[in-house]
Amino acid sequence: QKEVEQNSGPLSVPEGAIASLNCTYSDRGSQSFFWYRQYSGKSPELIMFIYSNGDKEDGRFTAQLNKASQYVSLLIRDSQPSDSATYLCAVNIMGGSYIPTFGRGTSLIVHP
Amino acid sequence: GAVVSQHPSWVICKSGTSVKIECRSLDFQATTMFWYRQFPKQSLMLMATSNEGSKATYEQGVEKDKFLINHASLTLSTLTVTSAHPEDSSFYICSARDRGRSPGLGEQYFGPGTRLTVT
Q1: Which of A46, B8, B29, B46 could form a Cys-Cys staple with B99, CB 3.0–4.6 A?
Q2: Which residues of B touch A94 (CB under 8 A)?
Q3: pLDDT tens, B23-68?
């Protein structure tokens, strides 16, 4: 059973702080990892993807991947109230039909 | 780039009628499209995977005769909810995978979703 685990939250951080969102996965064959943001009542929006161990930065967002420990994280620097949303982690594995497995999402609240 | 559209954005229908939802990739070719359903405050639930030119693969528990999927071209997939009932009321979201990328690495791009209400 391929599983992707996320803490449902909510994670509450003050404006300007760093928000840290974590995701663990069970399948060691996982190859690509994605973070999506979903506002209430809207569909998910791709924020970042990462394939290699280490960090990948894009603006205020940094994705971190550690395949040995089977976790991927998303850091949001200088958090803004507009970042308040549910963040979904998704994992693709090699082989099979490459259907991504989604976590249940972490709710982030950035308060002024 | 990587825009996916869905139509309609919302629909209200009477119990027993059928509803068709269209999903289009506007600026890329999508070999694979996915259909999800999401109930309020719940996570995404994958319903089926649609590959262009072949039959859709349905997830366990999803009735293929009730949720008809047609992936007619590299840019269009449709989901028809047949004989809809109030319990089918949900947020239906499609996503498309970019054909230009390796399938194991290709990210999905989501449509804006269709909110279905069955009365």
Answers
A1: B29
A2: 104
A3: 999 988 888 899 999 998 888 999 999 888 888 999 999 999 999 9
